Amino acid sequence: MSLAMSVADREAFLAGAHVAVLGVGTPDGSPLLVPVWYAYRPGGEIVVLTGRESVKARYVRAAGRFGICVQRETAPYQYVSVEGPVTAFEDRVDAAERAALAHRYLPLETACAYLAATADQLTTDVTVRMRPERWRTADFAPFAADFS
Prior knowledge:
The structure is a single chain. The chain has 148 residues and is α+β, with helices and mostly antiparallel strands. The chain is 33% helix and 34% strand. The protein contains 6 helices and 7 strands. Strands 1, 2, 3, 4, 5, 6 and 7 form a 7-stranded antiparallel β-sheet that branches.
């Protein structure tokens, strides 16, 4: 039995609100792995906002590609890992896109407070867009159903 997700299932899972772990190679060959908020719509690009001067931004810019992994942390376990090339490294952050990310991950009142408290990120962050190219997935739900 294959644990791989269908294209529709993997894209729907990735579009869900998961904190991702972003991975990118560093100059010494080791990976940098950091949690990030991201946006994704099926068939589209992955969007990450990060500090312009951050180590993450520097390594992603240099590598020209990165990967993310998202998972369901309770049984039945699932994950989607995707990597691909950076399609845009924008030296700006769109206020509506930033607000959508905050509301994706935080309750309404908390998101509003977060956006107000971190408004400087509109000028200190960058927007990174990545085209998913290589996918790895697993969905243990069918396997678990066979043994329940």
